[in-house]
Amino acid sequence: MEYPYPISADWSTQEVIDAVQFFEAVEEAYEKGVNRDVLLARYRRFKEIVPGKADERNICNEFEEASGYSPYRAIKKMKEEQGPVIKMDKNGSRD
């Protein structure tokens, strides 16, 4: 599946790489499961790049529209559950 990642022209090269790694972790959560600590670290870095809630919501909604994967739901599950692996099913609910 090919789709563009939402990025800002204002971000540095490293910030773009780090944001893409966050989106890749969300994809992994849906496709096969992702290590909780990896997702948490990538989300924390993403929040350093996009600290505002409104900007975060817009970028994550843009990613969800393009990919079908919800960063919001993946992060919500990560915060609610303490297991080592975060695994989402295709409609975003728990397995």
From TrEMBL:
InterPro entries: BH2638-like_sf (IPR023324), UPF0223 (IPR007920). Pfam families: UPF0223 (PF05256). Gene3D superfamilies: BH2638-like (1.10.220.80). Belongs to the UPF0223 family. This is UPF0223 protein SB48_HM08orf04397.
